[in-house]
Design brief:
The chain is mainly alpha-helical and 113 residues long. Helix content is 71%, strand content 0%.
Length: 113
């Protein structure tokens, strides 16, 4: 239940409790303690919401820091590989019959059915 709906529920229940207190009866003390209980529940809900928002803010800041670190690392990697790409030299290798050597020969039999 969110904070706003809890406030509305507290208000309506409190109005009903206040009416029952003025009209009298044995429910007076129970009505007032119920209102106090609902009020403390609303306060706890608001506190949990505030705490969750603070945690979210902290996590978002951590995520921003991680993204900055990652971007910096990626730029470094990209720069390093771009420099390496500039140092590539092309050489021509000619193929001749004497460039091929056969070290071992094997026959493999694979049944087809």
């Amino acid at each position: 239940m969110d904070t706003e709906s809890r406030r509305q529920q507290e208000f309506l229940a409190g109005a009903g409790d206040l009416l029952s207190v003025f009209l009298g009866g044995r429910r007076r003390s129970r009505s007032l303690s119920g209102a106090a209980s609902r009020r403390s529940q609303t306060v706890r809900t608001q506190e949990r919401l505030r705490s969750a928002r603070e945690k979210l803010s902290g996590k978002e800041a951590d995520l921003d820091d991680l993204e900055d670190d990652l971007a910096e690392d990626l730029m470094g990697i990209t720069d390093r590989w771009n420099e390496a790409a500039l140092d590539i030299a092309t050489i021509e290798i000619g193929l001749e019959k004497t460039d091929i050597a056969l070290d071992e020969m094997a026959l493999v039999w694979v049944p087809t059915d």
